[in-house]
Amino acid sequence: MAPKDYDSSLPPVPSFDFDPGSSPNDNASSDSDTDSTCPFCHISSVFPPYDPADPPPSSSPLLNPERTSPQPATFIILSTPHLVAFLDIMPLSIGHVLLCPRPHRPKLTDVSPAESAELGRYLRILSAAVVRATGVGDWNVVQNNGAAAAQVVPHMHFHVIPRPELRDQRSERFTATMFGRGQRDELDEDEAAELAERVRRTVAEVVRADGEEVAKL
Amino acid sequence: MAPKDYDSSLPPVPSFDFDPGSSPNDNASSDSDTDSTCPFCHISSVFPPYDPADPPPSSSPLLNPERTSPQPATFIILSTPHLVAFLDIMPLSIGHVLLCPRPHRPKLTDVSPAESAELGRYLRILSAAVVRATGVGDWNVVQNNGAAAAQVVPHMHFHVIPRPELRDQRSERFTATMFGRGQRDELDEDEAAELAERVRRTVAEVVRADGEEVAKL
């Protein structure tokens, strides 16, 4: 009845420290990992990585929402060598963010094993950061694969969507719009800039706290 | 304009090999990680881990769906030292599975950094396995945190839900029931046993293919 012996140790948690010896483009995507028609590839290509534990100030050109011009302004909340996250331009609620791999990966099954682990790590970090930044403690994580599953942009992405307590009617609107029907509001750019700054700061807090936790082990 | 240098290497992909020197209970959850009223903790407690690359045969007592008796039968598709996955007992479609951490973690923000990476890794593996086992290439991943987000069992879990092309009516039923309203069908136990066996086999195929990919690097 006893299971076979099993290496039950979890892989080590990577350090968040910068390595001044490595180039920012190590492990970077090759051209074949980019789709020139994909809006999320465009976002990836114009926002270079920064240290999530020490984000640049809002005034930095590295975070300028107009870098994606003439496409809609993009409010970055995370930009690592492998992942980017930003505010959804048609949010279902305040703090609705998207997390995706930097290279073009149509579906979740197209990411590499290492990328999938990195997505999992940052999904928790972003969730904690969005909760702290919005003050809303309940939220949904949604990730759609393929047209039948209501995927619109064919570059895989997780939605993190805060769920303030809603009256039933708004709640029904939520479930109807989550899968691509109904109305969603457009992002107000001033509010978005302020919110993105707050989320970047809470991401940094969570990443630094995780680093201290690991250092204690 | 250039970002600071950044250690851009992804953490190494862990090996799936068994380590005969380690105990299956290394890193196991302490009692404080278990909630005696939680159905998913009950599932975790009665199904020991097995090697996902080499699952026991369906006839093995390790996989007996009645291990959760008198709670509903449970059709396990993955059982590692840190995670369990099983068929949803009220599936929205054939192949609807749940993935959760073995210890009691109410929300995604309650998992450890290492657990979050492991969840990310297996979310991709399970997605690939469910696609292969059902022949349905589109699917949703959903994870609800808190009552306002329609979380029912307060032990965090990802839903992986195949989305065969549906007529509009069934599609609307899907969006309405995803967040806890409306009717869902109960699992047929004979079909479930056959499906779980198929998914365990496709999980093993994906895990072994990943291992070969890593060995080639």
From TrEMBL, chains A, B:
Compositional bias (Low complexity): 19-36
Any one Gene Ontology BP term: nucleotide metabolic process
Region (Disordered): 1-36
Domain called HIT: residue spans: 63-171
One Gene Ontology term of the molecular function aspect: catalytic activity
Active site: 157 (tele-amp-histidine intermediate)
Domain of life: Eukaryota
Positions of short motif Histidine triad motif: 155-159
PANTHER family noted in UniProt: HIT DOMAIN-CONTAINING PROTEIN, HIT FAMILY PROTEIN 1
Name the record gives this protein: HIT-like domain-containing protein
Organism of provenance: Corynascus novoguineensis
